[in-house]
């Protein structure tokens, strides 16, 4: 794979424009994953008490704001708060610091987690000859705030009209993942896509009558979250329900040590990889393949 190809499939390279900084949903607004949800705050604790506890356990570094949520009718707080930080790294470090120090407020242990948000959108129905740059440019026309974008990799081979296996010649797998600066930008993008559905973007696949289909998806799995090396595949057809069929469908994601087809239900099978990274890659990047529509990390069974 050459450098240009690597660029197309790299989700870590930011595509956020400098001009986006002045956008109403970005300027002065917190980015995604920069807010921390703190819960378990004792009823008798004050905002000052919470600040002191966070400072003592080292969770105030990078903090830019704090809100102890109160009940408007009673004036008392609800036992939780939101802390804003200047970066995703600062927010993640604060969560880790609170957990490590077993931080307490008024002798009551508090817990913290990064506030979840909808910021990642899966886009399907893309032209398979389109480059990442072309797609990013097209998606930007639906609103500022696109920060990262990655394409699914193309299938290395496919069958032609004569049912013979040939090189696919595709540049991508027909889908991609768009990550936005924050939830507000992602929601605006989704609304604009729906409102302008009749106006087809130039990167849409003409063969797909549905046009571009966009839906919110969860964050890309982190390596530490996936420890299992087995991929569970369901909804297989007869052509894929063989050792060779599974290998051909999933070998592009890593080295396969073996496969298993369920004896009583041959629509289900398992692919055993040599590393958890291969499972992560398959779950995060694979497009639906014929006869292997669903994939998860369920352990093998009979």
UniProtKB/TrEMBL annotation:
<dbReference type="InterPro" id="IPR000504">
    <property type="entry name" value="RRM_dom"/>
</dbReference>
<protein>
    <recommendedName>
        <fullName>RRM domain-containing protein</fullName>
    </recommendedName>
</protein>
<dbReference type="GO" id="GO:0003723">
    <property type="term" value="F:RNA binding"/>
</dbReference>
<feature type="domain" description="RRM">
    <location>
        <begin position="34"/>
        <end position="115"/>
    </location>
</feature>
<keyword id="KW-0694">RNA-binding</keyword>
<dbReference type="Pfam" id="PF00076">
    <property type="entry name" value="RRM_1"/>
</dbReference>
<feature type="domain" description="RRM">
    <location>
        <begin position="229"/>
        <end position="302"/>
    </location>
</feature>
<dbReference type="InterPro" id="IPR035979">
    <property type="entry name" value="RBD_domain_sf"/>
</dbReference>
<dbReference type="InterPro" id="IPR012677">
    <property type="entry name" value="Nucleotide-bd_a/b_plait_sf"/>
</dbReference>
């Amino acid at each position: 794979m050459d450098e240009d190809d690597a660029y197309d499939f790299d989700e870590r390279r930011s595509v956020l424009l400098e001009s986006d900084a002045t956008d109403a949903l970005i300027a002065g607004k917190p980015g995604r994953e920069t807010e921390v949800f703190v819960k378990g705050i004792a009823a008798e604790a004050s905002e000052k008490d919470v600040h002191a506890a966070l400072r003592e356990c080292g969770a105030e570094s990078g903090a830019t704001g704090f809100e102890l949520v109160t009940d408007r009718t009673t004036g008392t707080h609800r036992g939780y708060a939101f802390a804003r930080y200047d970066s995703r790294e600062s927010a993640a470090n604060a969560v880790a610091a609170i957990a490590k120090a077993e931080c307490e407020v008024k002798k009551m242990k508090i817990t913290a987690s990064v506030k979840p948000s909808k910021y990642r959108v899966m886009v399907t129905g893309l032209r398979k000859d389109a480059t990442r740059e072309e797609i990013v440019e097209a998606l930007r026309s639906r609103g500022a705030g696109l920060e990262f974008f990655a394409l699914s990799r193309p299938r290395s081979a496919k069958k032609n009209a004569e049912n013979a296996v040939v090189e696919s010649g595709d540049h991508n797998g027909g889908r991609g993942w768009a990550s936005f600066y924050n939830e507000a930008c992602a929601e605006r993008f989704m609304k604009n896509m729906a409102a302008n559905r009749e106006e087809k973007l130039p990167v849409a696949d003409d063969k797909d009558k549905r046009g571009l289909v966009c839906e919110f998806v969860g964050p890309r799995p982190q390596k530490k979250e996936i420890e299992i090396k087995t991929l569970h595949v369901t909804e297989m057809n007869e052509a894929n329900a063989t050792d060779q069929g599974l290998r051909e469908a999933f070998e592009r994601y890593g080295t396969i040590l073996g496969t298993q087809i369920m004896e009583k239900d041959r629509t289900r099978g398992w692919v055993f990889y040599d590393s958890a990274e291969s499972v992560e890659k398959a779950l995060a990047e694979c497009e639906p393949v014929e006869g292997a529509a669903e994939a998860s990390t369920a352990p093998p069974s009979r």
